[in-house]
Amino acid sequence: MHTPHRHILGLLCLLLQIVLAGPARSAELTLGDVQQVFPAAVSISALDGKAAAYLVRGPGGTLGYAFSTEELAPISAYSGKPINTVVGLGEDGLIRGVHILHHEEPILVIGISDQDLQDFIDQFKGRKSTDRIRVGARGRPGYVGIDGISGATITTMVMTSSVSKAVQSVASAYDIPAGTAPGTPDAQAQAPDAGATPAADEPAWTLLWQERTVELVVVTLALLLLMAILFFQDWLVERTVLFHRLRVGYLLFTVFFLGFYCAGQLSVINLLAFFHSLTSGFSWDTLLIEPVIFLLWAFVAVSILLWGRGVYCGWLCPFGAAQDLISKLARRLGFEGYRLPQMVHERLWAIKYFILIALVGLSLDSMVNAARLAEVEPFKTTFVLHFMREPPFVAYALAMLAVSAINSKFYCKYICPLGAGLSFVTRFRIFDWLRRRRECGKPCQACAHQCQIAAIKPTGEIIDNECHYCLECQVNYWDEQLCPPLVEKRKKREARERKRQEVIATDT
Fold it and tell me: Considering its fold, how many domains does the chain have in total?
């Protein structure tokens, strides 16, 4: 590993140690907090019972109970930290209201309107303490379905699960009866999907895995195909036409199916959230809420140790694949790419590592602050919100795509903090299957000039931390028309064959 990488890695390790030792927040409620769900509240008193809650009183007497989800049901969300809400539960067992007290969810800061969030929260009002509330479960027997927020699946599902568990905990601890909404029949006459018993049911993520079975099967098959490509890469790259068609087809699949259809774009926020989740109670349930994202991260965890981070960056990153396709199309149309001078190129590499360090540092204070800087990733604009957001974000995303027409994968090379984060683990990879010849770099520069990432040194060595494993250098390795050492051998062989044919012709 180069010295600059070693220094950066040391600094990141120090920052992450501080993350893991981060302070805890108090979950105590104030009267002002409670008035968000009980506007008529004039006093609150803590209850010394099985569940941490407050008895809420108004001018006319007791209004109900108020409690914090962070105290009763802290579930790590997308940021790796729980969403703290205050919940009001009436003595009749009906939810009076839910209000967010604190969160560090990136999607709720940038990308989701206040009205969308309020519309989601309002769906809890009037629900019974025994209701099994689930996002997207409308019509599912035994559940009460509510609508989620597009692009905020994990956040809304975690919030729903946290509220439901907290409500059930308080209702059970203080013998609060199952509520009946005004104008509805008695709870033994409720509809089947209303749920008449406490929800000792399956985790929230299982519903999503069942609903996205087709997507999961397709993604699993695609990952198996990629594994086959990697294991049989030597056989494949010798068949140039087949390889290029297969690669273009895979990149199209990555952009349109993984990216636009599944929103399966990994983010540096995922990495930061994982480390933060270690401090707030790690839970597999949270990771499993996004099925496609979970599968991709599981594959990355394996492939990065076997081949390095380049497998994800070169094959499975939708934004990277889009840049690659744009670059290929530009070359087909006759546009000449522009390569920065080697010295400038190597200096610009450092930008993404500085961005990563800044993100880690900001996340120590708040994931919300980190989320603002993480907008340097155009992924959410492109694949989650489909360019339906403020013009500056759209212009930035389009610019990062457009620049690839003249400088291939510009964003990946110089700006992407996710690639920077993954590159540190690459040094632990097991396999090194990228073949090189002794002539590589001395004097041959064919692969170095062709490499779209410029990840081959002038001396011929592949820079593993930067390589995207596109296998183009391996195509050259076996190509007798492109690889100079093979070209020389081919010409000698052809010369010998011509002489042999001349001898045969002379003899006859």
Answer: 2
**417 and 338 in one domain?**
yes
Domain annotation covers residue 383: yes
Q: CA 20, CA 15: separation in Å to the nearest integer?
A: 9
Instruction: Kindly list the distances between the CA atom of residue 154 and the CA atoms of 120, 148, 199, 290, in Å, as whole numbers in the listed order.
Output: 14, 9, 20, 7
User: Is residue 282 domain-resident?
Assistant: yes
Residue 259: domain span: 212-478
The β-bridge partners of 462 are 456
Coil, strand or helix: which one is 101? strand
Q: Which pLDDT band holds residue 290 (cuts at 50, 70, 90)?
A: confident
Give the pairing of strands 133-135 and 144-146. Answer: parallel
Residues 6+ apart with CB under 8 A from 488: none
The answer to whether residues 183 and 263 touch, using CB atoms and an 8 Å cutoff, is no
One-letter amino acid at 252 equals: L
Residues in Cβ contact with 45 at an 8 Å cutoff, skipping those fewer than 6 apart: 54, 55, 57
In a shared domain, residues 271 and 390:
yes
pLDDT at residue number 111: 67
Q: Is residue 394 part of a domain?
A: yes
Structure confidence at residue 457 as a pLDDT band (50, 70, 90): confident
User: Whole-prediction pTM value?
Assistant: 0.80
Residues 273 and 407 in one domain: yes
Judge contact between 419 and 309, C-beta under 8 A. Answer: yes
